[in-house]
Amino acid sequence: DAEITQSPRHKITETGRQVTLACHQTWNHNNMFWYRQDLGHGLRLIHYSYGVQDTNKGEVSDGYSVSRSNTEDLPLTLESAASSQTSVYFCASSVSSSYNEQFFGPGTRLTVL
Amino acid sequence: GQQLNQSPQSMFIQEGEDVSMNCTSSSIFNTWLWYKQEPGEGPVLLIALYKAGELTSNGRLTAQFGITRKDSFLNISASIPSDVGIYFCAGTEAAGNKLTFGGGTRVLVKP
Q1: CA-to-CA dists, residue B22 to B12, B17, B25, B33, angstroms
Q2: In what helix (H) or strand (E) does residue B85 lie, and over which residues does it extend?
Q3: For each of chain A's 113 residues, which pLDDT tens digit applies?
Q4: Which of A87, A95, B94, B106 would disulfide-bridge B10, Cβ 3.0–4.6 Å?
Q5: 8 A C-beta contact, residue A92 and residue A35
Q6: Burial group, residue B9, by CB count within 10 angstroms (0-12, 13-18, 19+)
Q7: CA of B10 to nearest chain A CA: how many angstroms apart?
C-alpha cells in the first residue's frame, strides 16, 4: 500500500547540532510539506515543495532547510538545533494544485537539550 | 497571517449524543478540510469540501462548506468513545496548496 513515512519517530539532540528528519512517500505526489505542531500554536508550515528541485518557505522557516532531489523524499534539516525547535514535526503530501487534500505522516518528536 | 477560529476549543461527549463544531475565517476559502488526530499520530483526513453549500458525509460524520465560504461545520452523530481526539479544520484561500489550520477542538468523554 502507498504510504508516507517519517524517521526517526523520536530524536533527542543537543543545541547546535545539525539534525535531519526524513520524509518518504510512495504515492508519487508532487507536493510535499513540513509542519511543526506545538501546544497553543496548532500546525504551522515550515517549508513546502511543488516538485523536484522546487522548495518554498512557509511561515516559520527560519533555522530550517529542505531539498527535493526526487519525487518521493523531502528531508528537513535543522542547521544548528535550538531549544525553541523542540516540537513534533509532521510531513504531508498532496497530489497536485487541483486537490488540496494533504495526507500526513506519523510525525517525529524532536527534543533539543 | 490568516487565522482560522475553531470552536469550541474542547468538548465532552456522552455516548450516543450528537455534537458539532465549527470553523470561521475572516476571508473567503476555496477548500475546507476536516482532520482528526489521535495521540502520537498524524492528522487523518476525514472530509474534504470544495463547493459553497456542499454537505458531505463520512459515516457518522457530516461536514458543510458554509454558503458565505467563510465557515465550515462538522457534526458527529451518535458519539462513541473512539470519537475522542482532536479535530482540526483546515482550508485554502486560493488556488494553491497551502493549508491554514484551526487551533483544534479537543473531544473528550464525559466522566
Answers
A1: 15, 17, 10, 12
A2: strand B85-92
A3: 669 999 999 999 999 999 999 999 999 999 999 999 998 778 999 999 999 999 999 999 999 999 999 999 999 999 999 999 999 999 999 987 666 789 999 999 999 99
A4: B106
A5: yes
A6: exposed
A7: 13
Question: Which residues of chain B have a CB within 8 Å of the CB of A102?
Answer: 33, 45, 90, 97, 99
Distance CA A86, CA A50 (A): 27
Beta bridge partners of A48: A33, A56
For B30-82, the pLDDT digits (tens) are 999 999 999 999 999 999 999 999 999 999 999 999 999 999 999 999 999 99
Chain A: nearest CA to B96, how far in angstroms? 6
- Is B92 within 8 Å of chain A by CB? yes
Check if B67 contacts A (Cβ < 8 Å): no
> Which residue of B lies nearest to A39 if distances are taken between CA atoms?
B103
- Interface check for B85 against chain A (CB to CB < 8 A): the answer is no
User: Which one of A37, A39, A43 makes the best mutation probe of the B interface by having the most chain B beta carbons within 10 Å?
Assistant: A43
**Angle, vertex CA B103, rays to CA B100 and CA B107, nearest 5:** 130
Asked if omega into B43 is within 30° of 0 (cis), the reply is no
- The nearest alpha carbon in chain A to B87 belongs to A42
Cβ burial, residue B78 (10 Å; 0-12/13-18/19+): exposed
